[in-house]
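Readers of this paper often ask what the protein records in our data store actually look like. The remainder of this section carries one protein's record, kept here as part of the documentation.

:::
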Amino acid sequence: MSTMSRSLNISQQKLAEKLIILNDRGIGMLTRIYNIKKACGDAKSKPAFLSDKTLESSIKHIVRRFPNIDVKGLQAITNIRNEIIKSLSLYYYTFVDLLDFKDNVCELLNVMDACQVTLDLTLNFELTKNYLDLVTTYISLMVLLSRVEDRKAVLGLFNAAHEMVHNQIDQSFPRLGQLIVDYDAPLKKLSEEFLPHQKVLMNALNSLWHVYPARNLTAEHWRSEQKLSLVSNPALLLKPSETNTMSCEYLSLESLERWIIFGFAICHQMLQQEHANKMWVSALESGWVLALFRDEVIYIHSYIQSFFDGIKGYGKRISEVKDCYHHAVQRAGYKHRERRKFLRTALKELGLILTDQPGLLGPKALLIFIGLCYSRDEVFWLLRHNDNPPQKVKGKVTEDLVDRQLPELLFHMEELRALVRKYSQVMQRYYVQYLSGFDAVALNLMMQNLQVCPEDESVILSSLCNTAASLNVKQVEDNELFDFRAFRLDWFRLQAYTSVAKTPLNLVDQRELAQFIDKMVFHTKMVDNLDEIMVETSDLSLFCFYNKIFESQFHMCLEFPAQNRYIIAFPLICSHFQNCTHELCPEERHHIRERSLSVVNIFLDEMAKEAKNIITTICDEQCTMSDKLLPKHCAQTIAQLANRKKKDKNKKNPIEIVKPGAESYRKTREELTTMDKLHMALTELCFAINYCSKVNVWEYTFAPREYLHQHLETRFSKALVGMVMFNQDTSEIAKPSELLVSVRAYMNVLQTVENYVHIDITRVFNNCLLQQTQNMDTHGEKTIASLYTQWYSEILLRRVSAGSICFSMNQKAFVSLSAEGAIPFNAEEYSDINELRSLAELIGPYGMKLLSETLMWHIASQVQELKKLVVQNKEVLQMLRTNFDKPDIMREQFKRLQHVDNVLQRMTIIGVILSFRQIAQESLLDVLERRIPFLISSIKDFQQQLPSGDPMKVISEMCSAAGLSCKVDPTLASALRQHKAELEEEEHLIVCLLMVFVAVSLPRLARSEGSFYRPSLEGHANNIHCMAPAINHIFGALFTICGQGDIEDRMKEFLALASSSLLRLGQETDKEAIRNRESVYLLLDLIVQESPFLTMDLLESCFPYVLIRNAYHEVYKQEQMLLHS
């Protein structure tokens, strides 16, 4: 054969292209057969016909007679034949595609035999690797096919239905049926099938002797060699890491072992050779299962034994396989455990040095991919062997299959991957210069030294040289996209051209050239193919199919504090899952996508939840410690000191009280407290959460910190409400001051989270605390503001109205008058100015406005009832209004009035509510003056410079919201306006008559025993002094609503009516009627003092001040007498 015809012939065979296409097709076929096997093995997903009881006998008939099926005996499927075709067509045609794939593989193998291709992994790497991959893929497919449970039933049912519809069998069925039958025992058939291909296959397998033993070393050997170490020889730190077999260095050990075991299993005659036998034994001793595809494995020793059992004279081989099995069970677990241990420290060292000096990523790139590849192999080994433990073996072996430090290895793998991605441009710059500055020049020299170089080979070599020479650094700086796929394909083609028999340029004679171009191929991958080489060396998408182990490893890591910081590796691995999909099986993409999105969401959520739980525990402890510092706890210490002074010498020493802060005293740092452990766990977990700002899975982006932010926000909201400790049944609630201390302690702990994670805790505070000022939070739950509003308006103020509690004007609090314990709580502990300031701190102006609006709603309800009473007494009140200067008529008409006590009681209730609201507003103002002094001073300026009347009603609203008092309360006016009568004249008259009703009813208060004024409290025991703010605020608001601008005139009228009514008390002779006359006189003084519309001069003109002065003197004297009696 001439040189020209030879080269034309081999180039026309397109070995390189066919190997690439068929290998990709083989993975696609594996994917489809795998999915069929899984579907048929699961009762829920298998085709319904296969489980149909009515078809059971037909299916048994098909399986028994397969592939020679007589449709006459299958009448049961006649009515559903179209449904069967529709349902099983995807399954059937997958098997047809498999037949087509088999034909193409056999054809290619025959061509390679005919061309007498020489394969050597260390010489023509791409050609040999693709050949061996194709062979193992083909074997895996046939083995997997034999493990599909219902293959005969599926094919037989479809063909029978097809024959019924088309009156003839499918044209592919005879060959397909024969394929199924032939490969019931796959290894036997494959060994027969590969007899013609043995020579080429054995060349390829024998070349592994130069690679496999060097890859299958123990951890001790790695340590002695200082494998993967950058610092073992500092002098070589900047020198590129290179070998003569670059591509072999990061070749998967799992692939090598599959090539060896499957290859020698079907060419078992070659096991008599020493090197072949050593590799065979070593591979079988590495583990007890071998991967077929994804999580499909075979117990390889028993599988081979059953195959060898059928071959005469193979007793020795069977014994050898059994010995290998026992060796694998006893020692493989330990060997791989030690490897993982070594790789953890080696990858950690690599990560630390490269993070500090990313420039080393250029020369030391090979080490990174070797480290990733080794680690990936060990992770895969653990996954497969953990999920498929050795049969009937317990103890040490199973211990070696549980690795609590696995997350650390996974994390360091992800760390190196992140470094490669981050500094990809550093690597590109290095290798672009390497290719153009050294590789192109050296290749050119080698080409010139070639004695023979045919035209095709010369064209390819020149193309490779020119491609490398044309590169420059500016392309990297301009972010130009590189694509060297053509370069690598040309080298693959060149390998094919130069590895056949009788080729003028034989690659075997040009080993140096082959090894050099192999290095160049690696250099090109560093420029344009980093993502793919990372998938090739460190893709962990296999976890997608070991989801139980994946989740259990995650939870084990979560519970193991020493590994907490590495837990972020699990969500990051979810981004690998899309790498395991294949375009030949698009239907599984959706399922894998949903699984990966679901798992990453669960993992990030549980990480954040665990961090939140730790933070909550620390917060609770800090709240307890803060609580111990509260003044109320000093009573115990004071009592103990008092007892110590008068203790009897014979008595035993009392138990010493542990003072707050004692937990800070330590004898040694080595003894960790629970809090120490919690803080350490939090630090580790937060490192993981903070490790990366986002995790990209498919087209979604997940932010780990946002998960923590949401959990903290939800937890803080619940904690805030929980710390209120409101009990509806017992009416108990936390004191606002104590709640404030707890909230501050909680916030102090949350603030420290910012030291660990880059999240905005202020945003958490703003969101949560702002929600707590509203009636409900975003989840529709009650808030601090709503709970305290409910408690103060419905519990405290109702108890005040019921008696036993008095509003003290000098203490600015509600004071319990009964003995301690008579009511569930002491009113002063919840209503004094300090407590209300604390409440204002907690719920702010918004919350205080909610409290005010609720109180005003209660007042508006009382006013409505008062208006109804006025309407009932309208005629009498009109008479009283017009005859206020005629004592006799007034006396007679007053007797006709109904519900006088009811009116006074309701006015007192209104007064109590307004008094509480007044001190609440003062508390709010105190808080705001401290927190926003400049803003408050501006509001005060607005109020002082306000034109009379505030026509826009805006300034009054603003002042009221800030706690400033207004002449007419806008919140009260707004609440009352909602119940205003339609006719303004009618409304005005009713308000005037209500004023008359109250004024003329005041003398009735003197009859009550509780109307006694207590100077020590500056208040009446029955709270009638609260009527003063009620009268001023209610009538001020009501007359403002009427809009007739006569507030001052009406208040003067009220003063005239009230004073004349009270003066008549001086003429009363009934002792009951004047029991507390002096105390009631004082009420008139209080009304004038608090009124913005009345003056002391006006009072003097209506009511002699000497009476008020004497009244004060009298009540002070009476209280002193009561105290000393």
User: Anything to note?
Assistant: Residues 1-8 have pLDDT under 50 and may be disordered. The two ends are 140 Å apart (CA to CA). The longest strand covers residues 290-293. The chain has five domains: 1-193, 211-422, 425-538, 540-633+672-771, 813-1124.
